[in-house]
Amino acid sequence: MLAFIGLGLHGIRDISLGALSFLRRANKIFVEYYTSLLPNFEAKKLEIFLKRNIEIVTRKQLEEESGSKILEAAKKYDVALLIPGNPFVATTHISLRIEAEKKGIRTLVYPAPSILDGIIIATGLQSYKMGRIVTIVYPDESLGYWPLTPYEVLKENLRLGLHTLFLLDIKASEAKYMTVKEGLNILLETENKVKGNLLKDSVVIGIARATAPDQKVLVGDLNTLLNANLGPPPHSIVIPSLLHPEEIEALKILGNAKEEVLKRWNLRVKRELRFT
User: Fold this and answer.
1) What are the DSSP calls for the chain, one per residue?
2) Between residues 93 and 273, which one has the greater pLDDT?
3) Which of 104, 145, 252, 255 is the most buried (most CB within 10 A)?
4) What is the greatest pairwise CA distance in the chain?
5) Each residue of 14-53: pLDDT tens digit?
6) Which domains does the chain carry?
């Protein structure tokens, strides 16, 4: 049996009672860190709590080797794979689950909050107004690669009246975690490349360590966010579309936003962006 267990968004706080019950009887426990960064999580502390050893698996083991080590163990034993956030936000894990089922290995899922849940909680934005989610990745101009997709997704979401959540690139093997400032600079450079006009006077929401005790939410214009220090990762960015009055009130309270800035952005979205 193979159980996919979400760790949620902070330490071991979000592990469900059902997941803990499974972990206490599991024969083998694995954890991966490369798909997301989980603040305040230490495998050693969880090992002490569970009285079980936890083995770290790498991107290579899960992707290039198709999780063969985990699958072989799950043929004989009760095995758990611990995953930051919600287990199936990353496509790697659904691929592993499908492969397990094909091999006759029973799978279980113990969900936990995803980053989308965390952003909604942290900002007060309404879930039904969230559009397509996209990741801003680091460019590699030596290979001629520049990430245009995030800007294209922003344009389409704005046209539909939907908010855009940007997840930010993680290179765990290099301990490199993209910041709000880096993400915005990539978007700005992309806008220059495509000669766009979406980011002018835009409202930006920067979120760091969503739902953690030291979470930081800052709402303002581009210059405000480009010059802000939001502290340690993980960071995320939201550029909203048309804001509901309740969302405006939430952003004022939760993100110290200025009402006039939000209302001015709403007018621009209505007049110039929403149906372009």
Assistant:
1) -EEEEE-BSSTTTT--HHHHHHHHH-SEEEEE-SS---TT--HHHHHHHHTS-EEEE-HIIIIITTTHHHHHHHHHS-EEEEESBSTTSSHHHHHHHHHHHHTT--EEEE----HHHHHHHHH---GGGB---EEE---BGGGTB---HHHHHHHHHHHHT-BEEEEE-EEGGGTEE--HHHHHHHHHHHHHHHT--SSTT--EEEEESTTSTT-EEEEE-HHHHHT----SSPEEEEE--SPPHHHHHHHHHHH---HHHHHHHHHHIIIIITT-
2) 93
3) 255
4) 62
5) 999 999 999 999 999 999 988 888 999 999 999 999 999 9
6) 2-110 (3.40.1010.10), 115-273 (3.30.950.10)
The distance of Cα 87 from the centroid of its chain, to the nearest Å, equals: 12
Nearest 5°: the CA angle 192, 224, 162 is: 65
φ and ψ of 200, to 5 deg: -60, 125
Nearest to 137 by CA among 128, 129, 145: 145
Query: How is the beta sheet containing 235-239 ordered, strand by strand?
Result: 134-136, 164-168, 235-239, 204-208, 216-220
Q: Which of 5, 24, 26 is nearest to 16 (CA)?
A: 5
pTM for the complete prediction?
A: 0.93
Cα torsion 62, 63, 68, 73 to 10°: value is 20
